[in-house]
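Weekly puzzle thread! Below is a chain. First person to post its structure in token form gets bragging rights.
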Amino acid sequence: MFMFVAAAVLFASNGRPQGYFEFSTVGIVRTHIGSIDGPLAGANIWAQMLAGPSPDALSPVAVPAKHLVLASGPTGWISAGVYAVPGIPDGQTAFFEMLVWDGARWGTSLSGVPKDQFGMTDIVPLVLADDFGPPAYPPPFRRSAIVPVPEPTTSAIVVLAAAGTLLCWAVRRRVELGSRRMTRRRAE
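Winning reply:
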């Protein structure tokens, strides 16, 4: 009986199916909009963490999260809590990447975002934590994610060009009419 209990305890302590990480970028990198010098991401910018056993086998983990906004304004940071990485045990290395997008334009689900509208961090390794050891750490990203600003569509460009042409025509016509009136007044 003693051997059975000892084996069960050893198996339970070594058989945890997943390790943990902190879904956070506070103090590491900030998300910007449009360019690295652009404004910091706020509540309408969403992020999804990807993780996996290798850099080329990443899949979504945790839930999408909004960027933090403080009284002073947008921060460009995420702090969403501690999550498990399914299939990778504690003490093992997992690889992480964070995707970001404009939730006001594309919604809050990763699946609704066109691939060219994602900003992303670099892919970094992290040793996963367990329930009883050191705390879970966030992935140590070195590159900020930059949310792309969508290019105007062809129809928007055509509408703007037509409006500009119409405005130029209206101004030219008004100038010509004014010039004719001045010529008539001088002739009288």
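Puzzle host: Confirmed. Bonus trivia for everyone else. The longest strand covers residues 93-102.
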